[in-house]
Design goal:
Elements: E1 19-24, E2 32-43, E3 65-68, E4 80-82, E5 88-95, E6 106-110, H1 111-124, E7 130-131, E8 134-137, H2 141-146, H3 150-154, E9 160-165, H4 170-174, E10 181-185, E11 188-189, H5 193-202, E12 208-215, E13 218-225, E14 227-228, E15 258-260, E16 265-269, H6 272-277, E17 287-292, E18 300-301, E19 311-315, E20 318-319, H7 323-335, E21 340-347, E22 350-357, H8 361-368, E23 371-372
Antiparallel strand pairs: 1-2, 1-4, 2-3, 3-6, 4-5, 5-6, 7-14, 8-9, 9-10, 10-11, 10-12, 12-13, 15-16, 15-23, 16-17, 17-19, 18-22, 19-20, 19-21, 21-22
Length: 373
């Protein structure tokens, strides 16, 4: 006996404003249908905070959800989202609600993702996701200027900044390095860093893909073989994947403390015992941030600025092992009229990059004298 079924639709063609129907059993009321429109595409609700009701916020691989104002309630999860032709373009998965009931903000996994999972489960009994061994972060205007990728940034191809790389991963073996900006993957332009995550994950393991990236202002191309992701991949060796921040109690008269007003921070040179407590790699040299105002009075920063507990290890790819070295580098770059800097920091067991826009030359010299102990 052949049961009636719906056909998969093309979720790539679904547009904001299109009418949709969602089906399910909200609160146990079976065979319920509600109507609405697509409110947004490519929603990543793992970045959202707040109460999401009993079903909570969906946190996982999928960060390309379809948002709708059609009434999705508890019990709708797993039901189809269909277009006006009756084709399935999504699978209901989550709601955002302070009360647990529909407030007009529901989410569905796109059919292109759900169909791939369905077909993989039927064929192999499991789902494989692609992995190349990099961790990436957002590229903003300051970082783009520091790494000379403004030409692509202004065209909407922001790219993905490599802030972590597994030495045993295929990206490292192909020659990619920290602070490279990945511009395209398999011919697909990377408009934002989270798009790279989706494209890599959807690529079949074993496939060799052309990766275009920017390094020192030059565009390079490499072939990278996509591997299958597993739980033991993606963690830096000898380091936890995430650690809680460690803070030293701040005191204005603590021994060895240096204040740098330009960046709005107070620093201590890193010691071996501090490195161990912060889970840094052996031999790491840098400056521990004891106190931070978020941003200095005369500079602008990305990622919310420098935080207490961060460790500054490089500025514009130059290592900084002492406050004086940092101050000398800043003074030299200011004289060369460099307006942006790139800070490499350790934060909670991982590398991050922060772009810094410097002030005018007159204030530069005034601020450079405010390094005090």
């Amino acid at each position: 006996m052949k049961l009636p079924s719906l056909s998969w639709g093309d979720s790539h063609q679904a547009r904001v404003g299109d009418w949709v129907l969602v089906a399910g059993s909200p609160f146990g009321f079976g065979r319920s249908i509600s109507a609405g429109i697509i409110s947004a595409r490519a929603r990543d609700i793992s970045k959202m905070s707040g109460e999401g009701g009993p079903e909570g916020l969906f946190v996982g691989y999928v960060d390309d959800l379809i948002q709708t104002d059609a009434a999705i309630n508890l019990g709708n999860s797993g039901g189809p989202m269909v277009d006006v032709q009756g084709n399935v373009i999504g699978v209901n998965v989550a709601i955002y609600s302070p009360s647990g009931g529909s407030v007009g903000i529901g989410f569905a996994v796109p059919a292109c993702v759900a169909q791939r999972v369905y077909e993989a489960l039927r064929a192999k009994g499991h789902v494989s996701y692609g992995w190349i061994g990099v961790r990436v972060q957002e590229v903003d205007d300051f970082i783009a200027t520091s790494l000379r990728s403004q030409e692509y940034y202004k065209k909407g191809v922001k790219g993905a900044l490599v802030s972590g790389i597994d030495p045993e991963g295929s990206a490292a073996k192909a020659g990619l390095e920290l602070s490279d900006i990945i511009l395209s993957f398999g011919g697909h332009p990377i408009e934002s860093y989270d798009r790279l995550t989706r494209i890599v994950g959807e690529t079949s393991p074993g496939k060799s893909v052309s990766v275009r990236f920017l390094r020192d202002g030059k565009v390079l191309d490499r072939k990278v073989r996509v591997e299958a992701w597993s739980l033991d991949k993606g963690t830096q060796k000898n380091l936890p994947s995430h650690v809680e921040p460690s803070f030293l109690p701040y005191s204005a008269d603590m021994p060895g403390l240096f204040r740098m007003d330009l960046l709005g921070i107070s620093l201590l040179p890193l010691t071996a015992s501090m490195s161990g407590a912060l889970y840094l790699l052996e031999g790491t040299k840098g400056l521990y941030v004891v106190q931070s105002n978020g941003t200095g009075e005369t500079v602008s920063m990305t990622m919310g600025g420098i935080r207490a507990g961060d460790v500054i290890v490089e500025v514009n790819n130059e290592p900084v092992g002492s406050p004086q070295r940092l101050n000398d580098l800043l003074a030299a770059w200011q004289k060369e009229n460099k307006r942006t800097l790139l800070l490499k920091i350790w934060r909670q067991g991982q590398v991050h990059y922060i772009g810094v826009a410097l002030p005018s030359e007159k204030k530069d010299h005034e601020m450079s004298s405010n390094l005090s102990s």
